[in-house]
Predict the 3D structure of the following.
Amino acid sequence: MIIDSHCHLISSRYEKPIHEIIDICEASNISLLLNIATKEKEFNEILSLSNNYKQIYNSVGIHPHETENLNKNIFIKIDNIIKNNKKTIAVGETGLDFYYNHSKKKDQIKSFEKHIDIALEHNLPIVVHSRDAEKDTKDILYSYKKNTNLTGVIHCFTGSEKFAREMMDIGFYISFSGIITFKKSSYLRDIVSQTDRDKILVETDSPFLAPIPNRGKTNIPAFIVHTIKQISDILSIDEAEVEKITSDNFFKLFKKVDAISIA
C-alpha cells in the first residue's frame, strides 16, 4: 500500500482530468490520497472530491500565503466542515512562510495559532508548512505542546537536521517529497537517513515538485514511487518496506482514517 500524504488535486495545473489521475494511482498501488486545501474557495471542491472518490481524504485550512484579511467566519466554516465531514482528517495546510512573505508575519502567526486551536478542539493533527521560519514554528508548536496532545506533520520538509529533530522530539512527523531526488538535495538525503523511521511520511505535493526522472513535468500522485525508491536507497531497505513504514505512520498520525477499510 502506498499513501500520498499531501497533494493538491484541484489545481488547474493538471493536464489530465481527476478520474484519469485516480486510475493511474490505482495502477500504481496508491491506495489513499490526502487532498489539501489552501484557501477558502477550494473547500467545496475538496469536499466534493472526497465524497466522490473512496481513496481521497481531505484536510482543510488556509495556507500562510493567504492569511491577510482572514476573519472569524472562515474559521467557523473550517470548524463546521470538520464536524460534518468524516473524511476531513486534519487541519491545514497552515504554518509560516517567511521566504515569500506574501502575508504579514503577524497575520501568519495569528492564523497558525487559530488552526492549532481548532485542531486541538477536534483532536486532529495539523499539516504544517514552514519555510525560513524554523524558530517561530518551533516556538509556537512547543508553546502549545507543553499542555496539550498536539500532533501533526511538517510537510514537504526542506529544513535543517536540528529542526527535524526538534519536531520529532514533540511527536511530529516529517514528510519528504520529490525534492529528495534532486541533485542539489544531498543535505536532505542525509536528513532522511537520520529521521526516526516511525516518524517518516512521503508525499508528492503535486502538482508541484515532480521528482527525478519526471522533473519539469506536472507532478501527479503516481510519481510518488520515485520518492519511495529514493528513500529505500538511502535507508538500504526494500521499497515494499518503505511503503509499509510510511503507510503505518500515516494511520498512526491520521487516526480518523480506518486503516482496515482502506486495505
